[in-house]
Amino acid sequence: MTLRVLAAMSGGVDSAVAAARAAEAGHDVTGVHMALSSNPQSYRTGARGCCTLEDSRDARRAADVIGIPFYVWDLAERFHEDVVEDFVSEYAAGRTPNPCLRCNEKIKFAALLDRAMALGFDAVCTGHYARLDDGVLRRGVDEGKDQSYVLAVCTPEQLAHAMFPLGDTTKADIRREAERRGLQVADKPDSHDICFISDGDTRGFLAERLGTAKGPIVDADGHEVGEHDGAYAYTIGQRKGLRIGTPAPDGRPRYVLDISPVTNTVTVGPREALDVHEITGERPIWLSEPPAGPFGCRVQLRAHGEVHDCTAEPDGDVLRLRLAAPARGVAAGQAAVLYDGDRVLGSATISDTARVPA
């Protein structure tokens, strides 16, 4: 069946090949590049960008080679509100957000998809490494590039209008295919880090928006061991850049254990104190009918992170997880994504953890 497909083209090799595959499959494909900044020069460029003027030009050239219409859509205001401001407010609240996950949720599969549906398109095509099998979201075959984690925030209704042509292919093969197709982005480096922080200095970016707010760094017993310029600059599990003047009694490294925006306090301690056995998640999204009671599955707690065996218990707007073995460095604000093998069952936003079994 021929579909009207809107191909989201970032300017990278993945989205270019995804658009080419959709067109080759016989679909009526239109390429669109999302302009996500009112001042593109302020975003990362070259190997680290994904939404700059350079990327827009690369996307246009790829569309010309494929032979499809191409447009640029201005989504800068929506991106700023839903991704950039959310990023800042989450850090201010002591949480650790994932902006790429939020971009998928709010921009690519909300703002972009909504506009595509209003214009009569049947599906949005992206270069994500994941698979859709009769509406079931599965991991991509390239384990190192799998992006099912950051797509798990999509609803079944959104996934019904999604297309991921790359999920059955490795990144190395995609680059070779791009070269065969004559796409100039075949050797373009992957984007990394956060696109809207031009110099990669997250702490400086947050300080500019949240200001300086000095506060204590304390150990697990409440003894002050240092001072910080803003609790927002720290993340759970962080080891480097703690600016602690007093060494630990046993000489071992300290890690960030807790961030309290209310008291502007950062708590540090030994690595083993990061062990988490229980996790609470909020706003769960289920990709099929949620189980009525507790069930066994696996959970991934960060993008490209380790997968843990667990027991999951849905409870209305809350998801409770008990891990078979402790995980470390689990931060509120990240996503807990549940899997049955390579199948995504659902996700929730981590809101709380317990380091000692109840």
Structural write-up:
Keywords: ATP-binding, Cytoplasm, Disulfide bond, Nucleotide-binding, RNA-binding, Transferase, tRNA processing, tRNA-binding. Catalyzes the 2-thiolation of uridine at the wobble position (U34) of tRNA, leading to the formation of s(2)U34. With 358 residues, the chain is α/β, with parallel strands linked by helices. It folds into 3 domains: 4-187, 3-Layer(aba) Sandwich (Rossmann fold); 215-266, no CATH class; 275-354, Elongation Factor Tu (Ef-tu), domain 3 (Beta Barrel). Helices cover 25% and strands 29% of the residues. It has helices at residues 13-24, 53-66, 76-92, 99-118, 148-151, 156-159, 171-180, 202-210, and strands spanning 4-8, 28-35, 70-74, 123-125, 130-133, 136-139, 162-163, 215-218, 224-228, 255-260, 265-269, 276-286, 295-300, 307-315, 318-327, 335-340, 343-354. The strands form 4 sheets. A 6-stranded antiparallel barrel has the order 12-15-14-13-16-17. Strands 3-2-1-4-7 form a 5-stranded parallel sheet, sandwiched between helices. Strand 10 (255-260) and strand 11 form a beta hairpin. Helix 1 (13-24) runs parallel beside helix 2 (53-66), helix 1 packs across helix 7 and helix 3 (76-92) packs antiparallel against helix 4 (99-118). It is globular and about 65 Å long. The termini are far apart.
